[in-house]
Amino acid sequence: MLKEMRDRRFLWVAVLLLLASAKFLYPVFAFDLPLGYDPGIYRYLFLKYAQVFPSFSIPDLKPWAQEYPYGLFLFAAPLLKLGVPVSWFLGWIWSAMAVALLALLAWVFARREGMITGILILLTGTLSIAFYDGFAAMYWKTFFSLFFLVLTFHFFERKSLWMMVPCGALTFLSHNQTGLILGLALAAWWVLNVRSNWRDPLFRKWTIAFTVIAVLGLIWYAPIWYRAFWAPLKSVFLLRGEDAPSGEFREAIFYIRYAGILLAFGIAGFIANFRRERFTVWQLAVLVCAVFIVFKLVFYKRFFLQLDFFLLPFAAMGLKAAWERFSSPTGRAILVGLLVMQGWLSIQQMLYWEPRYDARILASIEGIPQIVEKDATVIALENETAVWLLGWLPDLQTGGPGLFDEPAWTYQQWEELLYGTHVQRLALLDGMTRPLYFVASPLFFSYYGDAVKGFLADSCLKKVEGTMLLKVVCEPRKSSKP
What we know:
The chain is mainly alpha-helical. Helices cover 67% and strands 4% of the residues. It has two domains: 2-352, no CATH class; 359-472. The protein is globular. The relative contact order is 0.09.
């Protein structure tokens, strides 16, 4: 009987892993290119770090890209150098990473709470909408860092000091926001326990371990201290509520409406677990994320992903408790019905994600180096194309509006370029080196429409036939000196 029960559980593990794999591999087979806004950024960084490997030096990056922590890219660089295609890191390897992260969380809690809870984590993770949203947006650094954070918490609870320190350091070195969650959770645990446990030798060892992790993180972030650490941390204290930048993610009400069933199980499981044990690192991680969201601290929307992720084990516990409590056929039929409804909502939201580009446009971008001069500057007229230029033309000088440093125009200056007069455009273009091209993509036309007729008809711009390129044909005017 025990063998039959064990075999049945392993069958459920296999089925749920297969379902999770199908869900996260779906975009690889359904579309010709990755989902989300970030693939171009990651392609650019993967290639740049691979170029300088094995020196372990920091590559020559655009200023805004220097704030990205290095952990993920140093890990990927040797694989790319060995011949692994960068497209794999934007395709099936990325899909496998999402499944591996769920499987790791399930394995850790199977050892902590029992195999049933681990199996149910695979279910709740497959049903989760926020987790898939983070996957579709390609939050590579976040998922990679969460992998090491889960290991850090696991080894912390197993009292494995020598395994916890490197995993904790890798969490910090891979993503500053996830590292912040780890740091605040461990700091809160230390504060809650310092008075009653200071005389315990093991507690003092943990204090040393926390300090080592923090020092390694400070050393790692030293070269990019202001942009990657101090500016966001300062904003936590100075910017709150409507003044705080929210970050890119959907609104909280969306997840309450479409993932409310899973959220209810998560809250119920959290409360039940809190009655059994107080202020574990897993509970503190949930509370840290909740504080950022409830008080609308800086980039609070970005914490929806981590909050959802850390609630998955508690959702599994809540589901397990509900299944045991409502053991009648009617009660369990209702539970199954709720899970089916959540599954249907999850599938609908999964299908919502589609690339805004297609392979034809990407092929056009990849062909630009054969058209323009080697020293040309290529500027996108909207920020999404700018990201694809960055990733697929890493050896050209590219840029666009938004976070890009090239050109260093304000929002008002971009308006002058697109809506202004010929004289205003000349003043802007005088500061740009030649050869200079603009990319007028289908996204640009769909967004601006007839509003940019004057821009397109400007005598300084000449369309390169058969492409999306507009070449700047007027040379910079010589400045007049008194």
